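Hi F.,

I've been meaning to write this up properly since the lab meeting, where we talked about keeping a consistent format for the predictions we share between groups. The idea is simple: the sequence comes first, exactly as it goes in, then the structure tokens exactly as they come out, then a line or two of notes. No screenshots and no reformatting. I'm using this chain as the first example so we have something concrete to point to.
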Amino acid sequence: MKSNQALEDGRVTPEFVEKERKKRNRRESLTGYAMISPWLIGFFGLIIGPMIYSFILSFTDYDMLSAPQWIGVSNYVELFTNDPRFIKSLQATLTFVAIAIPLKLAFSLFLALLFNTGRKGSGVFTTIYYVPSIIGGSVAISVVWRQMFGRDGAVNTVLDAWGLNTISFFGNSTAAMSILIILIVWQFGAPMIIFLAGLRQIPQDLYEAASVDGAGTIRKFMKVTIPMLTPIIFFNLVMETINGFMTFTQAFLVTGGGPRDSTLFYAVYLYEVAFEFLNMGYASAMAWILLVIIGAFTLLIFKSSTFWVHYD
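Output, unedited:
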């Protein structure tokens, strides 16, 4: 209203225009912040706030029953110098990630190549094969997996029927780790779908040109498919590595840490420290160390991508 009056009176000056522009920008900004306020409240209240509080707790002795007691870096020193289970959990997690993630990505890519033929019914099979990724991380599947590989489970029943020696899957360190690796590889659906989308974006002209040059199937795969898929491989590698370090449900319910802590994954040990031993300060220090470890591996993957990821 004031703007219209100013225009009618001929009192429009550069200062007046600038003032009105700032008012309009302010109103637009406030409207934008109001629209995203639910997300901001959740982000700062449920993520940033707890992270800051967790970082403070990592320098305290806190059992949830009494007030936190400041002890400085004692939790971190204790972890690296006087906690063999921490080192064991770190070793188990690194072993798991180093084996399970490459196998999962390789199997996902293999199935994506099979489903990329465009044959009739491939979409239905793609949907069916995606199901394990939806239910594979659930408590129900973990319980089923434990029963299946138990002493009297389905696997040992089949082995016994064939006259083979049964296996104590939960009494052998290598077998226990293998069970979890197979379970994680079985949840290949998500990376498979991403690989399949990437394969369908590769121009067919490249394969035709390779055929003219006399390239066979393997050479096309190595010289065309893999280079064109490197951005997709990079994305899947980062996401699956992060998820691998945070694996909890499967290890906790299927093997429970395994014999001699062979499958005591980092997240499982963190859970025990926090909710069984009620040592929240110590658990907070572990959580921040895990964040640093995941950040370091992610940074390493990003740095290495300059040598093997091709975007052109």
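Notes:
The chain has a mean pLDDT of 87.
The chain is about 75% helix and 0% strand.

If this format works for you, I'll send the rest the same way.

G.
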